[in-house]
Amino acid sequence: MDLEKKTHKIKLVHLKGNMILILGSFPSRKSLEEGFYYAHKQNRFWKVISMVFDEETPSNKEEKINFLNKHGISLYDSLEECEIEGSSDSSIRKEVPSDLSFFLSQKGEKRIIFNGKAAEKYFKKYQSAGSDVTLYPCPSTSPANAKDSLQYLVECYKKAILG
């Protein structure tokens, strides 16, 4: 296994008052190269999230940030640093959790939506959600998760985001 130490270098997307946080595990190689979340062309995140709201898929970083803020959604990852082979969540070692206090300390009912099992695993390993936080596990939108149809992903995320 050829593990490489990587540090999260993508800026958190969070507008104070956003009460939904979607967490990935750790940015993919392509996302780290592009400097923004879910940058791989085959990742279905942006398509799924836009279908949840029946809107056009945002095409650039500014449109994506505006889209998220319009809908009260923040984006980040469960891990700040780790050793990883390529973009494979199953290879993650020596993980360092992200500081999520910016979100968890906000007053009011909050939702954390996990984009895949690894995001949920690392959140639960290192974080403590209060009684004002509802956790929603959703399937990964990664191209590595080809078993789940686009429509299934949309239904899962719609239920988590819209209730």
Q: Report the mean per-residue pLDDT as an integer.
A: 94
Q: Write down the Rg.
A: 15 Å
**Strand pairing plus helix content: what structural class?**
alpha/beta
CATH class: Alpha Beta
Number of helices: 6
Q: Please, what is the CATH homologous superfamily?
A: Uracil-DNA glycosylase-like domain
Record the strand order, biggest sheet: 3-2-6-7
How would you describe the shape?
globular
- List the helices and strands in order: EEHHHEEEHEHEH
Q: Could you name the ranges where pLDDT drops below 50 across 5 or more consecutive residues? A: none
* CATH architect. name: 3-Layer(aba) Sandwich
> Domains counted in the coordinates: how many?
1
Helix content: 25-40%
Relative strand content: 15-25%
For the biggest sheet, the summary is:
4 strands, parallel
CATH topology term: Uracil-DNA Glycosylase, subunit E
Span between N and C termini?
A: 41 Å
Counting DSSP E segments of at least 2 residues, the number of strands comes to: 7
